[in-house]
Amino acid sequence: MPAHVQAVIAREKGAPVTLETVVIPDPGPGEAVVRVQACGVCHTDLHYREGGISDAFPFLLGHEAAGVVDAVGPGVTSVGPGDFVVLNWRAVCGECRSCRRGRPQYCFSTHNATQKMTLLDGTELAPALGIGAFAEKTLVAAGQCTKVDPAARPEAVGLLGCGVMAGFGAAMFTGEVGYGDSVAVFGCGGVGCAAVAGAVLAGATTVIAVDLDQRKLDLARAFGATDLVDASAADPVEAVRALTGGNGADVCIEAVGNPAVMEQAFYARDLAGTLVQVGVPTPEMRIDLPMIEFFGRGGRLKPSWYGDCLPSRDFPVLVELYLQGRLDLDRFVSETIALGDVESAFGRMQRGEVLRSVVLLGA
Ligand SMILES: [Zn+2]
Ligand SMILES: [Zn+2]
């Protein structure tokens, strides 16, 4: 029997989101229905609402979620009813040219559910990042569910589904931060703070947080940043150099998605250093760098897709680190809210008042 549940819908470009009844089909082959327990509010949800990602309205928003598997379709063996799972938006296919070469973290053909969730009148919904978890239940591909230790709080570990994993992985996997490295993180929202936490866990000895907002810098400090640079008061390139013996950082991570910040991160890097871009740009953004600087500085410039993570490999590990008290996922949860509060949470996010508002569903 298809389920009727409450869900947060973006009906049209720029309009406030609304709480509506949606229809969740029974899971088909390869699919799972998940009873959502918690789902974080991410900038990407707002980008969907503003039409910045596609025009395929109406959207079912929400994608940083944890919950319990309600039912699985034929052929699903990876998870079953009752499993506590974190949802991911890159369920790897195992068959594309990247997967076949042993690089599933770059899978070029990731899976989502085949069936559509709909409004009561049958209008098909486009779920944000193929998830759509601001809903009491959602339908996903079974590969989008990663089973983790049920001792973890859903509102904390659900955040691994997007921003926290992207930032953590940008440091740990894309940047390959290691023992004794110096790291500078530009932009200390949820993604940047996760990059700080990842750099600390990876063994970096200098972790410099750069932001315009003192509240964000204070949060970065709490995640283990050793030095703070207020970019509203000082030239961040000079400041990072001054904190690294005049050389620049081994790894610079751009976690804003802004050309000016990208340029700062490029020049704040030591020779042969690594620049990681994890902040998501808009289509019109451009960067203009002298080729001689690109060549002469050497090193690596690397975009980071979802932190180059592999959910099946990484979510259980990060949950274990969380349960051991070595990765403070609770600190990312600024507030818990109800399903009807997503619109007001967008405002708090835009004003920089929260790292993450997290919707708590049911009990
Ligand atoms: Zn693939
Ligand atoms: Zn997100």
Q: In a nutshell, what does this entry contain?
A:
By secondary structure, the protein is an alpha/beta fold. Helix content is 26%, strand content 26%. Helix 6 (214-222) links the parallel strand 12 (206-211) and strand 13.
Key descriptive features of the protein:
363 residues; alpha/beta; Quinone Oxidoreductase, Chain A, domain 1; Rossmann fold; 2 domains; 7-stranded mixed sheet; 6-stranded parallel sheet; 11 helices; 18 strands; 26% helix; 26% strand; binds zinc ion
Category by helix and strand content: alpha/beta
N-to-C span = 22 Å
Mean of residue pLDDT values: 96
CA-atom Rg in angstroms: 20 Å
Provide a descriptive summary of the structure in words.
This protein is 26% helix and 26% strand. It has 11 helices and 18 strands. Helix 8 (259-267) links the parallel strand 14 (249-254) and strand 15. Helix 4 packs parallel to helix 5 (190-202). The longest helix is centred in the middle third of the chain and has 13 residues, at 190-202. The two termini are 22 Å apart. One zinc ion is lined by residues 42, 44, 63-64, 162-163.
List the helices and strands and how they pair.
Elements: E1 3-10, E2 18-24, E3 31-40, H1 43-49, E4 59-60, E5 64-72, E6 84-87, H2 97-100, E7 118-119, E8 126-127, E9 137-141, E10 145-147, H3 154-157, H4 163-174, E11 182-186, H5 190-202, E12 206-211, H6 214-222, E13 227-230, H7 236-242, E14 249-254, H8 259-267, E15 269-277, H9 291-297, E16 300-303, H10 311-323, E17 333-337, H11 342-350, E18 356-360
Parallel strand pairs: 4-8, 11-12, 11-14, 12-13, 14-15, 15-16, 17-18
Antiparallel strand pairs: 1-2, 1-4, 2-7, 3-5, 3-9, 3-18, 5-6, 6-10
Residues 42, 44, 63-64, 162-163 line the site of one zinc ion.
